[in-house]
Design brief:
With 267 residues, the chain is α/β, with parallel strands linked by helices. The chain has two domains: 94 residues, Nucleotidyltransferase, domain 5 (2-Layer Sandwich), CATH 3.30.420; 95 residues, Nucleotidyltransferase, domain 5. Helix content is 40%, strand content 24%. The structure holds adenosine-5'-triphosphate (ATP) and magnesium ion.
């Protein structure tokens, strides 16, 4: 039995392989002792770790685990998924939207880090809490799904007011920039505020990613990370914004397990 484990800032992703069967599990990073207890019950298992909390997890478990660098593990996992999903790509950007966002360029056989941004899943949770007081992830994303950010965000077309725009009018000119124009006539619900928070995160992640795609001459941007789980709105923002900016988005099923699968495959 083999375990590949990506212990990240917010979630611990686990891939278990046994007799060619793969299963996926996740725990909160605050539950790392539970993961250690689970591993203790499989003393004969091979364990491969990656992620920011890998070394700490190693200190809690009996197995002498293999460890790989998070970026290489994630790349290996993505390549494995792309092959299995019959969607091979040669040159592409991948954006790992985790607690924070890390962006990489893949040139056939290797990845290089192309940038990153502090806008990511952690910002959705933190800013979401500040705006609404909601700290439960599934309630937060369910609420956001009902929101509307039209009265909160300022679009290019709002500034040009019917005049011909030099760039697409649907592009956001200023996230949250419409608030002072609409505040006297509109009541913003918690759902609207959360939709706007997800909007700024999605658009920032996309902007940084497509700048990398342009710099490296890549057509596709592959998006992974648990931030897309239960958060169709984020996926929609990122997908539409990538297309609007002229690139091809690709979302991998189970992509949030790329690091966990990759470190297992590198072992
Ligand atoms: P990093 O790679 O930056 O160290 P990570 O690997 O822990 O962090 P991911 O697991 O890819 O990051 O994504 C974390 C994000 O996923 C959270 O910030 C949150 O937006 C989202 N998320 C999805 N499901 C949950 C959940 N059940 N509980 C908390 N956050 C969740
Ligand atoms: Mg991660």
């Amino acid at each position: 039995m083999k375990f590949g484990i990506d212990a990240g800032g917010t979630l611990i992703k686990i891939v278990k392989e046994e007799n060619n069967e793969r299963s996926y599990m996740k725990y909160l990073s605050t539950e790392i002792e539970k993961v250690a207890a689970m591993l203790e019950s499989y003393p004969e298992a091979s364990v491969a770790l990656t992620g920011g909390k890998a070394t700490y997890l190693q200190s809690l478990i009996p197995q002498e685990a293999f460890q790989s660098i998070e970026f290489d593990a994630t790349f290996k996992g993505i390549q494995t998924f792309l092959q299995q999903h019959d969607h091979p790509l040669e040159n592409y950007i991948f954006a790992n939207v985790g607690t924070g966002t890390s962006i990489h360029y893949v040139d056939g056989e290797q990845q290089v880090r192309a940038g990153g941004t502090g806008a990511g899943g952690g910002m959705i949770q933190g800013l979401g809490y500040l705006l609404t007081g909601e700290s439960d992830y599934s309630r937060l994303t369910a609420l956001a799904a009902q929101g509307d950010r039209d009265e909160i965000d300022l679009k290019v077309k709002h500034i040009y007011k019917g005049d011909k725009t030099p760039i697409p009018g649907e592009l956001t000119a200023a996230n949250f920039g419409r608030v002072l124009h609409t505040k006297d006539t509109v009541t913003y619900t918690d759902a609207d505020k959360l939709a706007a928070a997800i909007g700024v995160v999605g658009e920032t992640v996309t902007t940084v990613s497509i700048h990398a795609a342009r710099e490296f001459n890549a057509e596709y941007v592959v998006y992974i990370g648990s931030s897309f789980l239960d958060n169709e709105l984020l996926e929609k923002v990122v997908m539409n914004y990538t297309v609007l900016r002229g690139f091809k988005p690709y979302f991998i099923e189970n992509g949030e397990y790329s690091g966990a699968l990759g470190t297992l495959k590198l072992m």
